[in-house]
Hints:
14% strand; single chain; 7 strands; Beta Polymerase, domain 2; two-stranded antiparallel sheet; 6 helices; alpha+beta
Amino acid sequence: MNKPAYEVLTRFDERVLDRMVLAVELVKQRLLRATKALADGGVPYAVAGGNAVSAWVAKTDPSAIRNTADVDILLDRQDFQRAKEILTAAGFVYRHARGIDMFLDGPDGKFREAVHILFAGEKVYPEDALPLPSLEESQSDDLYQVVDLAALVRMKLIANRRKDQVHLSDMLDLGMIDESWLSKYPPELAARLQFLIDTPNG
């Protein structure tokens, strides 16, 4: 006998929800494993990217947090070899692909779910307007070291991809940043921020 459509749909929805919750939890675990390993190994670092955005947004409105699949970590290049040894010992697998140093979460890990390494004080791409922040532009959060908000906004303005613009628009909507922040950045980056201020609906 066939099950009622609503019962089949409900079970399907529950499975999808379970997978969504698991995906978020796996990113959190990956982030905590990597940062704890680096901290225990005495390697200075700072969390950047979407997880840094989440850490800052959570201070204002946790309901506005957007999920992210990867983990971005800022390191000094001189510490990379030591970090590589530490993360490998923690179960991560090093790969260099698409011009990026990354650590897959095990031998079957996916590239989009990896720990991506960024180098403090260096440009990601030669055409970037500015280099990435130094590790001095970071602070301790409850669980790990995270890039300062001003430095994080600068990183997002430099990258200027659609997801970076969305993160910045969220910060504008929440009042975390505003027009007074324009003076913090050079003209090219200030113009990008001004555009987002002027076009709140995209």
